[in-house]
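Two proteins follow. First one:
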Amino acid sequence: MADTDGKQIICIKWGTQYGPHYANRLRAMVARNITPPFRLICFTDDATGLHPDIVVRPLPEFSYEAPVNTKGKWPKSRLWGDLGDITGTVLFLDLDVVITGSLDDFFTFGEPDDTVLATNPNTWFEPRVGQTSVYRMQVGRLAPLQQMFRADPQGIADRYRYEQRFVTRNAPGGVKFWPRGWVAHFRRHCVPPMPLRYWVEPRIPRGARVVIFPGGLNPPDAIAGRWSDQVPVRDLRGHFRAAFDGSRQESLPRHLRHFVRPASWVEALWRD
């Protein structure tokens, strides 16, 4: 990448889970929170409906036997190797993030050839596991991981479960982590603790630049006030009613905890 090309942000879109509006809103959020020049490159199998300012590239070729019954986003492995004319330093963003602050420091933190990940807040029992919703790399640096994965996709998936744990443990030269607070997990860091979440809407933690949405809760769910995309939208009264009328889908303690009020700031920020 020539210096005049500026900062490079990449994302990946495959299948039908995320429509083009996810990439378009990501582009708009990036544009509002970065010092130009920059470009957003979307690697996709369907560019229909994407904003003309998004640089479109086909999904990189990477043949492997897809693991089954695994939770990790293993198709992200397509980005670990050669990306054609996209070279140099890239910042990867999941399609379903909400950008809440400047992205500039994500390009200057550490050394240029560092692989830098977010810290995974769901693995308190296993310190220093990365989260790949927001990570930076030099294109091609993770290519050895592609070869390891191709040799035994199901074995790697069974051993590591999530692609982010595989990257953390095996990235050439190791990984670094973003400073504490830059990346916030919506459920862990934005939703108030019990029982405040019944009356107080989620908030943006001080200093957060990107809010991530792992699991089955995406920005539309946060806007609607829904813990996951598998449950209906309920107000507080409906949530308590469902706890005892037979319509809940999990244990009573989990159901009672799994409540979130609509997040007005997600609606304000997650837009074109």
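Second one, unrelated to the first:
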Amino acid sequence: MSVGKKAKNVLYTFVVDPLKIIVHNKAGLIGFIGLLIYIFMAIAGPYIVPLDTIPKPEQRYLPPSWEHPLGTDFEGKDIFSQIVNGARDVLFVAFLAGTITVLIATVLGSIAGFKGGLWDNAIMAVDEILLTIPQFPLLSVLAALTRLDNFTLALVIGVLSWPALARAIRSQVLSLKERDFIEAARALGLDAKHIVFTEIMPNLMSYIVVSWILSMTGAVYSQVGLVFLGFVPFTSHNWGVMINLAWTWGAIYYKNSVWYIISPIMAITGFQLSAILFSRALEEIFNPRLRE
């Protein structure tokens, strides 16, 4: 097979065919477009819509207008610019924390399920210990005792969030390794590395990808919750900071402040909804049986 034909096959396998599935899945398409908007907002938004940092007391709590699409806050600053500039930190923490969670859970869950024995007992013992510890209170304590930046916060959330997913992946591997095609691979003398990465992992990809999406949405809740409670330093401007300031400055007591309170909540909800809808298309991409 020529190099050009190989490149064409790779293009169709990893780009064209997935895009066709996304377009065919209406819910997935809506989620995909929504995520693209959020990603664009996080990457290019701050350059297109600079953060409004100049207080204008005479313009506080203005309703939406052409000049201020989402109105103004308690200092008269534009809310829309705060939403746009707050997306980068939230999405960074969500992506990194979700990725760390899935990587740890996949590796440990696969080892526990495939190896069994002492490996399984040791990993599941650590898993059970972590599952008994309430995650958000522990996050709150760690955030209160240490100064967490975005990277460290994502790392802590990811490290504490893997146990439930690892146990689920272990169960999937335990089921898969008893299938006929795995027994056939063992009979052919294939090593454990080949069996795990070539035979087992492709059958887990739809579950892993959907779990990655759900881990990201959970990371957003954890991050925004910690920022709202004031456990994470306000080193930058994000949606959690907006909710915290709205509460601190008593925005709930002003009838015209509803846009300041609801805008970051709707931004978070929109990201969560887009991610979950997109997961439906991802599940179809990685699970051929759903396409039928």
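SUMMARY FIELD: The chain is about 75% helix and 0% strand. The mean pLDDT is 85.
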